[in-house]
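quick one: 4-hydroxy-3-methoxybenzaldehyde bound model?
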Amino acid sequence: MTATLGFIESITIEELEKDPYPFYERLRREAPVAFVPALGMYIVSSKDLCAEIAKDSDNWPAVISAAGGRTFGPGALLNTNGEEHRKLRDMIEPHLQPSAVDKYIDALVRPYARERLEAFDSDGRADLVSAYCEPVSVRALGDLLGLNDVSTDKLREWFHKLSVSFTNAAVDDNGDFANPDGFEPGDEAKAEIVAHVDPKIDHWIDHPDHSAISHWLHDGMPEGQTRPREVIYPNLYVFLLGAMQEPGHAMATTVAGLLSRPDQLERVVDDPTLIPRAQSEGMRWVAPIWSAVVKAATKDVTVGGVDIPAGSAVMLSYGSANQDEHAYDAPTAYDLDRPVTPNMTFGAGAHACGGTYFANAVIRIGLEELLEAIPNLERDDTRDVDFWGWGFRGPKELFVKWEV
Ligand code: V55
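yep, here:
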């Protein structure tokens, strides 16, 4: 192994969470495959190497960071492979395939989006993240799963706590967790989730309904049997984190991007058929799952000129892949008009996101309703747009105003 460059040696996760872009810009230029001591993992930051590894699931099985594993436990979609992974995909995919989503998505998202917009203060100011993007995101998936009886704010609290725990990735010189207390929020959320969902599972076992969790319990199981809770929970946590949080991130990011280009915002307001393009560029610009995907080297291997020993954990930083100067001109700018080039936002290969179509539909409907209700949206420039996060990234708050 080559000596670690000084800037890599000294980086901290707190710095990355504040703003990962300068560090990663330098990584792509000087060390697109690099061992990062603060993480105890290799990071891959270029688009071509991220894509190559993601697509080669035979040589690069999906694992999970140590912090991710501490949060979800074994048996999640993210850290299973081969036949076991295929069965879990078969469990979740029926509700997420386009033909299914198209049947239910409007009724699931649009009325609630309108309800939130009608509840906006009449003073023409709002924080879109807490008042709209997060609620619309969590309510849609919560209702689909069968968690209609969990409040919108509780679902927001759960994804936030799981997210903090999942990304508590810092390790010390011995490779042990640097902040073991950082898992407490996730542990609290999981205890609440199990306490709430266990009785619901008891009920669904005898009274199946149309909810996704009820189907997870019953689909493909022999007569009289249901899928064990040890299979359900790790995967439910995956949904209650990423699938709850990221459509909200994507909506807010897209609005922030459009607010940075008021001419482009105006065109999208005038022609809502541009919304899918606007959101795709939003997620290219700031990938909601910025750096959370990890693969394992199955053998000693050389990638991008760096020797990686068998068994190493290799993190694919898709948020950086989406900023790769070799793939995109002026990658740091939001630009509706840039050539449509595929990006890594939803991953690739056997572990490519199973919720791609669902998430895109939620984001699109959320943005359609927002821009129809408030076509004269402007940034509240007395407040900063406050992007945050390295594992998962988006605006923490997004203050807007409009003439009422
Ligand atoms: C990831 C996805 C998740 C999650 C945690 O791709 C990490 C990484 C879709 O949910 O909860």
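DSSP finds 16 helices and twelve strands in the chain.
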